[in-house]
Each structure stands twice: as C-alpha cells, then as structure tokens.
Amino acid sequence: MFNRDHLIDDAARRSAEIMIQKAEALRAELRSQAPAAVALRSGAALTQDESGRDQLALAYLGADYTVACPDFQVYRTGTGEPAYPFLQAVLLTYLQTADGAARAHRWVSFRELPGGQFYHRAFQGYTGDLLARELGDNLEAFRRGASPLAETRLGGYGDAAYAFRVLPRVYLAAVYWLGDADEGFAPRAHILFDPAAIHYMSIDGLAVIGSQLTSRIRRGAKP
After folding, report:
1. What distance in Å separates the CA atoms of residue 214 and residue 82, rounded to the nearest whole number?
2. Beta-bridge mates of residue 45
3. Phi-psi label, residue 184: left if phi above 0, alpha if psi -120 to 50, beta otherwise
C-alpha cells in the first residue's frame, strides 16, 4: 500500500495505514470546496494546467507535488508520476485539515500537541532516541544529515538544531545534545513541532511526518 522504507516503526506504519484508508473520504470532502479556498487556507499555490484546469502546487520534505483538481489526485511535479498512496494521504490530509492558522514561532514536544500525550513515548522511541542511539557523539553526522533538508539553523537549542519547513505551513525542528561521560549523560535528540502544525495535520500524520524526517536525517548522516 505504501513504501515501507520511508517509515521507521510499526506504530508509524499503522498510522500511515489509517491515513490511507481515509484518502477517498478526504477527496470527496475536498471536491466540495473551491480550489482557491483550499489554497488560501493551506498555503499551496493555485495554478492551472495546459488545459486551464485548476491545480494546487506544494512541497513536502523538499520535493514538489501537484494536486489535480477536481479529482484531487497527487503527482510528482515535472514527471506526472502518481505519488504513492501514503504520500497521497499525507497531502490530502494536509489540504483538508488546513484552517489558515498562523505559525506560532515556538517549539513544543510531541506530547504537548493535542492527542500526543498518549503516544509520545513511542514517537520519541522511533525519532529522537533512534537518532541519538545511531549517531552517538558524532555531532558532525547529525549536521550532515539535517542541514541539507533544513530551512534554517537554530541557535540556543542543544549542541546543534535545525528547523524544517516540511509542508507549506507545517514546521518541525530537530535538536541534538552531545553526551557527557563524566556526568553520566548519554547523547539525546528530539523532534519538535511548531504548535500550529496541529491546525494542518492529524496527530497520526504528524507522527508519521516525524518518522519520515528522522529517516531522512539518518540516511543523510551516513558518510
């Protein structure tokens, strides 16, 4: 149903399956709305194809996608290749959930998001804990994996931190702390969210987005 290589943990995969099952219902809801209104709420760009039909353009984790209207099928921009089902579900959930809320310009943990407190241990396990376990005190590896994806480097957070514009109005951050053998502290990492993210994505979707961001950092960290 979706590319398992893009997800880390079985809990994240279950969340993805739930989203995929809701995709057709999301399409039906979006078809009842004016594309211009969807674009305004979500920050997607409203454009037209060669035939003059409306389409929405937006990026996810740095890759560009086009959503054709009125059927709301998702394609990779420039190739016309349909996005795999999970990614279709992520972008449809984003477009339908978006309510136009402004960015908060602060960072919170997954447990501080509405609905996140019940799953924060699992989320931390397959995101920050996994990064810290794999990278250890190799701060340069974290920087190597995170910086190409990041919108900006963050000061005042951990030993290294980056902010990511994952979707037009969904912002995540990755923060890394080195360990201290003398004090008995192991390396730590956390994936954080701008609180406005919950206005644009379900809590299941945010969990999966955090998983995918972690996976991309891990892959980029390899020499």
Report:
1. 24
2. 57
3. left
Measuring CA to CA, how many Å separate 211 from each of 41, 136, 190? 25, 19, 12
Separation between Cα atoms, residue 195 and residue 103, nearest integer Å: 8
pLDDT along the chain (223 residues), means of 10: 46 68 89 96 95 95 95 92 89 96 97 94 94 96 97 96 98 96 88 98 92 95 91
List phi, psi (to 5°) of 141. Answer: -65, -40
- Whole-prediction pTM value? 0.90
Rounded to whole angstroms, how far apart are CA atoms 204 and 196?
A: 15
Kindly state the helix (H) or strand (E) to which residue 160 belongs, with its residue range.
strand 160-167
Q: Tell me the per-residue pLDDT of 89-99, one tens digit each, with 9 for 90 and over.
A: 999 999 999 99
Domain boundaries, the chain: 4-97, 110-221
Which residue carries 């035939």 as its tokens? 51
Helix locations, the chain, DSSP H: 10-21, 23-31, 35-42, 85-97, 120-126, 128-135, 139-146, 203-221
CA separation for the pair 199, 132 (Å, rounded): 29
